[in-house]
Structure formats: C-alpha cells, structure tokens
Design goal:
Number of helices: 11
Oligomer: single chain
Distance between the termini: 54 Å
Helix content: 25-40%
CATH topology of the largest domain: Rossmann fold
Number of strands: 20
Shape: globular
Number of domains: 3
CATH architecture of the largest domain: 3-Layer(aba) Sandwich
Radius of gyration: 20 Å
CATH class of the largest domain: Alpha Beta
Largest sheet: 6 strands, mixed
Structural class: alpha/beta
Length: 363
C-alpha cells in the first residue's frame, strides 16, 4: 500500500555551532585522518582532499585517494593512526560499531599528542552541517555555501514530493540486517518521499527481520547495498518476499552505492533525489537500476554493467562508457563509485553503485 503524502519536518535542519579542531603549531594541520565516509565526502566537497593524511579503508571514492587507506571494515586501530603522525584526527564512529575498540583508538591517539575531535553521528540533518563545519574548521575553509546548497536542494525536493504518494521501502544490508527507525537510512527514505517498511514492522536501529514480519508489511520497493553483491532478480526471488509486491518483480529492487544512501553526509540531497527519481513514477527521467557482474574484480579485468534504461552512460574512475563490458583501469585496490546517467523525453536520472577492486591483472 502506498501511503498518503505528508510534509517533511524541516525542523531537522538544525544549524549547529562549527566543531573546533586541534591545529598544529602553524595554525594549519599538517594532515588530517578521518574515520567516516561523510568526512571523506566533506573534504572533497570543500575541495580540500589534498589535506587528508588518511581515509577509512572502506571509503567509496570516485578517484583513487592520494591519502593512505587505514583500518579494516569500520575499525581503525590507534597504532595505524599514530605512525602516520597526522596533526589531527576527526573521528565519526559508524553506527554499527561501538564499545572498547572506538574508545581505545581515541585514547591512543590523544596519548600520542595528536589532536582529536569526536563528531556526532546522530541520524539528523544537523549532523551533516557539523561534518562540513569540522572539515571547514580543520582546513580554514568556509563551509556555509555548501551547507546552504544542501538545505536549498532538500527544500526543492520536499516541495516536488509534497503531493506525491509515499511508497513503502525496505532497505537491506549484509548479514540479514535492515534499517529501522533511528537510523540515517530512515531519514534518507523520508527525504526521498518513502515510508520505511522496517518502521511498520516495529524495528529500531539496524536489526534482523523475519520472513513473516516482511510479509505482514505493505512493502512496495526494496533497496539493497552493493556490498551484498547481489542482483534485483536474486532479491525478488527470496522467500521473505513471497506474497508481497516484490515477489518475482526485480524492477521493484534497486542495488545502490552505500556511501551516499546509508550515511548522512554532504551528498544527502543528491542521494535522496536519486532514490526519489527511482521510486516515484511521477518524477522526470527514466528509472535507473544498474547491476554489475561481478561486483569484485581485479584491475584491468572486465566488468559487465547492465543498465535497463534508455540513452545511458556509465562513468567509472573519470572515464565515460556505454553500458555493457567495461574494463577496469590500472588502479589501486579499493572501493570505487560507478555512476550511471540515463535520459528520456521527460528528463535525466542518475544513480550510483559500487565496484570493489581487489588485486591486479595488469601486465
């Protein structure tokens, strides 16, 4: 069932006081290590990526980062940070990681005399402003214009969606997890004009959901992170979606780049707009739902990019291709964003997904 439209509570657009960072003797950091995808995106948004000394190993980027990749999925050890001797660490814990490992990293960094600032990660738009503010403070850059543009873009999207129906969507993660209330995803779905089916199921945070609970919801659409290395066809055939609108309907499933759709960062307006364009037939442009085969490749290996949309282009590592077989350039290992744009008589639509490069087959 598609819910009636309701206005977005823009009281969430709280403007926070900029976060103060610790600086080196010259007043400028010699280099900054950041621990979250939103912070990586904030430095790029402010055109200060050259001041990054380290980015998380799991960060998804458009181009190979000049900075070192540090850590392993969602965990960064103090020793990795200290030996790189940054002037500052901006730490924004991932919602799925809590406990002693985060505290040990913070303690070890501060004991080494390195500047340390912990940033908020609450599921509110004020967190986006705080992230930009911290990157701006660390680099001596005014973040105001970037933040105001995000506010403006979200207000425009909210106005566009105001009178449109709100489909119910379930957001899938690896390990059988879904995103319930009190998560970044819950807010992003709201911004994109959708209801969260996990909310209907009574789930809070990132939790597992039973097949029976899914079948009791009125789920219209499914969104899955590309880290699941799956396809719309595989998801639509899962037993959990039996007797729902998703059963044998892969066109109702979207596999996405998790860096923009699962965390609140500087690309939140872009992510919400992309999800809105896919989930609302009333929005201009075709529905774009690319799939990759495989999602993990070696450098210089081919990957098949399937795009079921007209007049489409595929951009990977700065190069634009037609859909089909794309050869991965000679790049370092890591996670890279793949952008697909498609056009029809009503307009243009864009979506992003993720490709992982593991090793190299280059001569």
């Amino acid at each position: 069932m598609v819910a009636a439209a309701r206005p977005l509570a823009f009281a969430l657009l709280v403007v926070l006081t900029p976060v103060a960072g610790c600086m080196g003797d010259t007043g400028e950091p010699e280099g900054v290590i950041v621990t979250s995808q939103p912070l990586v995106d904030a430095f790029h948004e402010l055109d200060r990526a050259d001041q990054l000394a380290g980015v998380p190993d799991w960060a998804i980027v458009d181009e190979p980062p000049a900075a070192d990749r540090v850590g392993r999925p969602f965990v960064i050890e103090a020793e990795e940070v200290v030996r790189r001797e940054p002037a500052l660490v901006l730490d924004q814990p991932h919602p799925l990681v809590t406990g002693p490992s985060r505290e040990a990293m913070a303690t070890g960094v501060q004991q080494a005399g390195i500047g340390y600032e912990k940033l908020p990660s609450e599921p509110a738009l004020g967190t986006v402003e705080a992230t930009l503010a911290a990157a701006g403070e660390a680099t001596g850059t005014d973040h105001t214009d970037a933040w105001q543009q995000i506010r403006s873009d979200l207000a425009d999207l909210n106005e566009t969606l105001a009178d449109q129906p709100r489909p119910s969507a379930l957001f899938l993660f690896p390990a059988g997890l879904v995103a319930g209330t009190d998560t970044d995803v819950d807010l992003i779905l709201e911004l994109a004009g959708m209801e969260n089916a996990a909310r209907e199921a009574g789930l809070t945070g990132y939790a597992q959901i039973t097949d029976e609970a899914v079948q009791r919801t009125d789920v219209d659409l499914v969104i899955a992170t590309a880290t699941m290395h799956t396809t719309p066809e595989e998801i639509a055939g899962r037993p959990m979606f039996a007797d729902t609108a998703i059963e044998d309907s892969p066109e109702r499933v979207l596999v996405v780049d998790p860096s923009r759709t699962t965390r609140l960062g500087p690309h939140v307006a872009e992510a919400a707009s992309q999800l809105a364009a896919w989930s609302h037939e009333e929005m201009p442009g075709p529905r774009v739902s690319p799939t990759l085969d495989p999602y993990e490749v070696h450098a210089c290996e081919p990957v098949d990019v399937d795009v079921d949309a007209p007049n489409a282009t595929v951009t990977l590592l700065g190069e634009t291709h037609d859909p089909g077989t794309v050869t991965v350039p000679d790049v370092a290992e890591g996670h890279y964003r793949l952008t697909v744009e498609a056009r029809d008589d009503t307009g243009t639509a864009t979506t992003t997904t993720m490709l992982t490069v593991e090793g190299s087959d280059c001569a």
